[in-house]
Amino acid sequence: MIIFLRRIGAFVARDWRVTVSYRMQFFLRVLSILIVVTTLFFVSKIFVGFADPRFSQWTDPLAAWLTGLAVLNYFMTGFSSLANSIRQEQMQGTLEAVLMTPISVPTVIVASSAWDFVEATLYASLYLVFGWLLFDVHYRGSFLLALLFLLLTTFVLACLGILSASFAMVFKRGDPFGIFLGTGSALFSGVFFPTQLISQYAGTGISSISRILPPTYGLDGIRRVLIEGEGLSQVREPLLTLLLFLVILLPFSLWVFGRAVRRAKREGSLIQY
Amino acid sequence: MSNNSVAISIDRLSKTYPVSFLRLKKAFRRKFKPPVDALRDVSLKIGAGEIFGLIGPNGAGKTTLTKIIATLVQPTTGTVTVKGFDSVSEDEQVRRNLGLASAEERSFYWRLTAEQNLLFFSRLYGLSETSAKQRIRELFALFELEELGKRRFAELSTGNKQRLAVARAMLARPPVLLLDEPTRSLDPIAAARMRATIKALAQDDAQRVTVFFTSHNLAEVEELCDRVAIISKGAIRAIDTPRNLQAQHTEKEQVTITFDGVRVADVELALARAFSDRFFRVEQNQTSGEGDLKFTREVNDEMLNNVLRVLQQSGAIVRAVETQRATLLDVLERYEKFQNPEQ
Q1: ipTM
Q2: I need a surface site. Which of A69, B35, B149, B257 has the fewest CB within 10 A?
Q3: Where are the alpha helices (DSSP H) in chain A?
């Protein structure tokens, strides 16, 4: 376990050093978050006094958007960073050297995406902190319960990320999970508007898409906790749904990943991209 | 070779690309990409402390064999063991005992310094911070990279990048080193130092590092390797010491004898009397005044001894004898030309 953590630490230290070698990029990213939050603040002012009582999470649209963006940023990292880390090492040409050390492929994938989570935590927090510090957005409820939702949804998406990494390993490009989740989550998971509006305007058939996307449940749970102040007993349903996703997806994704690694090693294509 | 002294054992190893997969993929590949036998029934054993060279033309299977030993590619059939560990089922153990230095420049992080790069890899090998730093200092001293430790990898010369790659392979003091053209980009002095380092590693009784070495520099292979395997079209054609390979596969050698104390014409006459059916070229060296006698002989025949006797009988003082046998290149060319299994 100590060696495993030391290896994770090695990857995080490596990526931290690479990140700080591009200081301007880091500064611009923080600035862009500030600009987005400020823009959303002014857009939210259009809706003052127009709150629809049906959408209790959207009484303060700025709070709903900021939690949506913060959480989406984190979810997408959970989903995409596993495949991206492998692809990036392949394209840099460093994967062979890393795989020559006594480290397993799953460890490489988890460890090389660790920095992405550190970064995502920082950037996700910035959405909430800027909203709180500059625009008087208040969050209530249990932060621990919100964190539980965040972690659970991230784990579920990481399972899909493992499937995505398996695709990257065998087919190199063309990742169906990425296309589906990347474009689908923003539209169907309620990041920018309540999901109930989809059934109202597009019918129940289309709105059922949002019900099969894990981020819908994660986002709903976090908003109910942070914005509406609900407790564990009230958010049991989205919590159990996420657990069900995890129980099904975790063993399946690990099984597929094991097959993909074996396949790539037999084909000799592990380091190709 | 006893089992204890075997560092790498390869048994009936074959590798075919591509591997059949889904029917659809297979159907596409059948059209555009017929299967290629990258390795065919390769078997060999390499001893502890041995420097073993693998030579062959491009596409012969050198890289595939190296990658299978390094556990980066799985064989289609056959087995590879390194220090007794199987390369498929015990791949992590194999990698604990291996260091690979390839000629690939992109295998480092260009934004990190040389030291930060080695520190990162030593952590992956499980070295503690203190022992990693100590080991990096030792390796920087060994490869004369002390001044360059704080420089970004991108700023290093090609030769220094290559030295860093060999240093990385040696980070965890592995008993087996796989070196892919380790002196390709080095200047002559640095190349000679690298060869001396490799030799010292293998000869050091405490370490007895086994070196598996691929190179296109045949003179280097000849100088360094205890044994050499010639690989062509995925099959091992011959394994022996460089000297035996040269002797077994080339029949003739050129002999030059430098002599003094007697006229060139007298030597010509004596040789013509003794060997009427042979051709000798005898010339006077205009600068030194010495005579040079040149002839070709069968390897290991009695001709050299007989010619020396005739020279001495005619009053000549022999100053030097040089023989020039065929090089490994000649051996390699010969295999390529005459041992094509398809013919």
Answers
A1: 0.78
A2: B35
A3: 2-20, 23-46, 61-92, 95-99, 105-112, 114-135, 143-171, 176-188, 196-202, 204-212, 214-226, 236-267
